[in-house]
Amino acid sequence: MIWESWDAFWAMGGYALYVWGSFGATLACIVGEVWRVRRQRRQVISRLRRLQRFDSQ
Question: DSSP state, 15?
């Protein structure tokens, strides 16, 4: 698609709300997933360290 100006690009041919909303929702899902995986990883590492301490006693 060829746009006459940046305003036309940002308007996305009248579908800006759908297009940019979709990008925003996708970005929110990706950020949320990365956050959840990092948090879960820290919890697993913490559990493993506690188990290792318990095992060595």
Answer: T
What are the tens digits of pLDDT across the range 1-54?
Answer: 677 898 988 888 889 999 999 999 999 999 999 999 999 999 999 999 999 988
Tokens of 40: 């879960």
- Distance, in Å, from the CA atom of 20 to the CA atom of 40, rounded to the nearest integer, reads 30
Instruction: Report the amino acid identity of residue 45.
Output: I
Cα Rg, the chain, nearest whole Å: 22
**Count of beta carbons in the 10 Å neighbourhood of residue 38:** 10
Q: Do 21 and 15 contact (CB within 8 A), yes or no?
A: no
